[in-house]
Amino acid sequence: MASADDDATLRHPLSEAVFSSPVAPGTGWPGDPATAATPVAEVAAQVRALAAGASGVGELDALVSVCRACPRLVAWREGVARGKRAAFAAQPYWGRAVPSFGDPDAAVLIVGLAPAAHGANRTGRMFTGDRSGDWLYAALHRAGYASQPTSVHAGDGLRLAGVRIVAAVRCAPPDNKPTPLERGTCAPWLDRELQLALPRLRSMLALGSIGWDAALAAARRLGWTVPRPKPRFGHGAEALLVAGDRTVRLVGSYHVSQQNTFTGKLTERMLDEVIDRL
Ligand code: SF4
C-alpha cells in the first residue's frame, strides 16, 4: 500500500508524467477536461445550477470531474485513490468524479451505473481498466463504434464514434451502491447530458436496472413522454420515449459486470444483439 508521500512520485503508466492521488484538476492527466479554475459543486444546489448552465458537453465534463457534492462518495473515492489495490500500487489514481466519454455529437448514449473503485476511479475514464470495460469496448469495437477493442488506460488512443458513455452516478460508491440521496444529487448531470444530446439522440442503452431506471427518471424530469405503466427492465427490453418531435429508443441490457459475464448470464452474442438495435 502506498503512502501519501509515495503518491507524489507515482507516474501515469502511459504518459509517465507524475501525479498525486487523487489527481489535481488541469495537471496533465490524459483526457482531464478540467482546469484549476473549473467551478466546483460542493452541494446539491450547485450541481443543479452548474449542470443547467453547461453550454456543451466539454464544459459539462469539466464540471462533473471536479464535483464534490456527496461527502460520503468523495471520501470513499479519495480514500481508495490513496490506499490503492496492491496490483496498482505503483500507479497514481484519478480519484475524482468520472466524466462521460465518447463522441460529443453522439446519436447513441450508453447509461452505466457508477465508476468502479479500481477501474474508472483509477484511470479517470468510463469503463476503463477493468473486466467490465473489456467486455463493453470489445463489443463497441465489433459494432464499429470504437477505434480499438481494448480500454486499458486514458491516453491509449481509444476513440468512440457515434456513442457517448454516461452514468447515473459519477463517483465510485462503496459496494457499488450509491444511496438514493446520492443518486438524486448526481441526477442533474445526467439530465443535462440527455438535454444536450437530444437534437441528435436516436437511442440509449441502459446497463442494468439502475441504468434503466436512471434513464427513465431523467426522461420524466425533462418532460419527455414515458410509457405508463413504467416499462420493466430486462435484457432486450425496449421503451420508446417521446421528446417533442423526437422518439428515442431505450434498450435494456444486463450490466457488463463480472458477475454477469463470468456466470454466462450475459454473453458476447447477447450484448452484440442489443447494441445492434441502437
Ligand atoms: S456522485 Fe455525482 S453529485 Fe455526487 S460528488 Fe460525485 S459527481 Fe458529484
CATH architecture: 3-Layer(aba) Sandwich
Number of domains: 1
The hetero compounds bound to this protein are: iron/sulfur cluster
CATH class: Alpha Beta
Global shape: globular
The fold-level CATH name is Uracil-DNA Glycosylase, subunit E
Nearest-angstrom radius of gyration?
Answer: 18 Å
Strand arrangement within the widest β-sheet reads 1-3-2-4-6-5
Major sheet size, sense and barrel closure: 6 strands, mixed
What is the CATH superfamily? Uracil-DNA glycosylase-like domain
Measure the end-to-end span.
43 Å
In DSSP terms, counting alpha (H) and pi (I) runs of 4 or more, how many helices? 10
* Helix proportion: 25-40%
- Count of beta strands: 6
List segments where confidence is low: pLDDT < 50 over at least 5 consecutive residues. 1-7
Note the run of SSEs as H and E. HHHHEEHHEHEHEEHH
On the 0-100 scale, what is the average pLDDT? 95
How does this model look, in words?
The model is unreliable at 1-7 (pLDDT under 50). The protein has a six-stranded mixed sheet, with helices on both faces. Helices cover 36% and strands 11% of the residues. With 278 residues, it is α/β, with parallel strands linked by helices. It is built from ten helices and six strands, in the order H-H-H-H-E-E-H-H-E-H-E-H-E-E-H-H. 49% of the residues are buried. Iron/sulfur cluster (SF4) binds next to helix 4 and helix 7.
